[in-house]
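The instructor's notes for this session suggest beginning with a concrete chain rather than abstract definitions. Hand out the sequence below and ask the class to guess, before any prediction is shown, which regions might be ordered.
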Amino acid sequence: MEALSIPVLVNLSALGLGLLLGALVQRTDFCTMGAISDWVLMGDSGRLRAWLLAIGVAILGSQALHIAGLIDLGGAIYSTANFGWAGALIGGALFGFGMTLAGGCGSRSLARLGAGNLKSLVALLVLGVFAYMTLRGLFAPARLGLEAALNLDLKAAGAAGQGLPDLLGLLGLPAERTRPVLAVLLGGGLVLFTLADKRFRARPRLLIGGTGMGLLVVAGWAVTGILGNDDFDPTPLASITFVAPVGDSLIYLMTFTGAKLSFGISTVIGVVLGAFFMASAQGRFRIESFASRQDLQHHLLGGALMGTGGVLALGCTIGQGLTGLSTLALGSLLAFAGIIAGCLLALRYLEDGTLRGAVKSLFGAY
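After discussion, reveal the predicted structure:
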């Protein structure tokens, strides 16, 4: 029997990761937008701690792979020396606002689609279209102009990339020595912080959700960086993210024979299937449509903002808020902050009904 090629093994592994992620999100209700809204509106920090736990686990595991020489995170898109600080902040804020209008980020929308939510299908279709418009279409010239005007070339300053260990190298601190320290302090610190709350420790669903999501990010790096490390046709180093892959998935579905199956597309397919199987097993699969015209408008606008913002920020709540942060990239920290700010503003907007009132409410409350 002929052995499977490396690209096939990578795609099968990505499908498996997607299945696990979709089932995990469906089973544990892991959701970034939900985490922030629970914290702001109800004072419940449980799901927010699950997100922070996932970040901590992802940092520890991903940095361990790098330090062991199994992968090189310097080759990840998040670690580039072309520092797009403005795109990270603006794109993150747009994405955070959009995901709140649409009721969930890319991963959550994919899981909701698998559970029968047709509203998420509309949001994902719009997300994919606007992601491609921003990446290669109508909005691409504006994006490229923004990057050309505001991106910083860190190599000119003497830094190999935007990773925190590389930036500390500008102070004369060797990256190979600061990386383990930062991984333990940041990753380990987040894990200890989340587990310090006994109420959180008493909620196994959240513990499993946070730990599982972090480990899936680590596994994604291992699949592309170790399994996909073919001398002749290496798989681009990446882990789990959903903005560009959703757009790629639409192109793949429309062209099929002319498109190439990739790690990202396989992951997207897996998430929908994993959520479907879990929802069916739970008896929670339900066809759900829009409750009102305003509900439709929110999902359309939310999908557009997520697609545009996600490309500007180089990722979503998973792509930047987990995968990017696991590389210790400064841009990921800025995108993370932008996503939270955008989500907070959108929550106030949904309460007040006007953007002006939301801004006043936000600055008055915080």
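Then share the key points. The two ends are 63 Å apart (CA to CA). The chain has a mean pLDDT of 93.
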